[in-house]
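hi! just following up on the protien thing from before. the input was this:
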Amino acid sequence: MMTIFGIPTQALFGQLLLGLINGAFYAMLSLGLALIFGLLNIVNFSHGALYMMGAFVAWLLLTYLGAGYWLALIIAPLAVAVFGIICERFLLSRLYKLDHLYGLLLTFGLALVIEGLFRQLYGISGMPYAVPKELQGGWNLGFMYLPIYRGWVVVASLVLCLGSWLLIEKTKLGAYLRAATENATLVQAFGINVPMMVTLTYGFGVALAAIAGVLAAPIYSVNPLMGSNLIIVVFAVVVIGGMGSILGAVITGFLLGLVEGLTKVFYPEAASTVIFVVMAIVLLIKPAGLFGKRS
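and the predicted 3d structure came back as:
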């Protein structure tokens, strides 16, 4: 058996694959967080709960309506986006002129309510969600075995993140969004409905979290705590990449997933804390984050 630095190649590449998969979820979730913070200036602590809600909507569609995975990839993000839009219109919109702390506290409370409701209804034991038939099995690459579904998750995440970045950075709509973060009054003077644009942007951000939840359902068990276990790490990713930086969120998400995977190989005891160590080092060297800009 071939080894690299004394580590069997299958074990090394297997951990790298796990790190890449974790990085895919970090990237999708931090992308939505960065987008919401960049436009609304709200630290959306309910993002993990909305990710969990996306997974649960997929599970409920399959269990009670027989709707499969591919249909869930469409319906779940739309359902969670509608829920997010209602929350933004009736709750978050009242806090935009206040300190960031109020938005953080509101979204944190909202996350607790959502998680508590799902725990009350379904308990904390995980519910399985089957991999769709089209994505079952795997490929033997010689140096490792690659499950098809996990490869699909990485590719889907890359396409989704790249598409979102192109939409925000390279289109007229994205230009309006970026301008609204700098001077909403001026943008509104050109006839752009800024409040509606903000609402739809929030809906898009939480829809990204729901898509990540649907993609995660066949890999991890669907349970009410799946979002709370992930959101702290995702916030660290956003801080390292730079608050509000779309590109920083995506690149940092994938890189830190790989770093976490390598740490599990060479120093497993530090795997759960390596991201926070990286965050501390980055903030000491560059307080605005790797891709962030100083205020």
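The mean pLDDT is 86.
Residues 22-224 form one domain.
cheers
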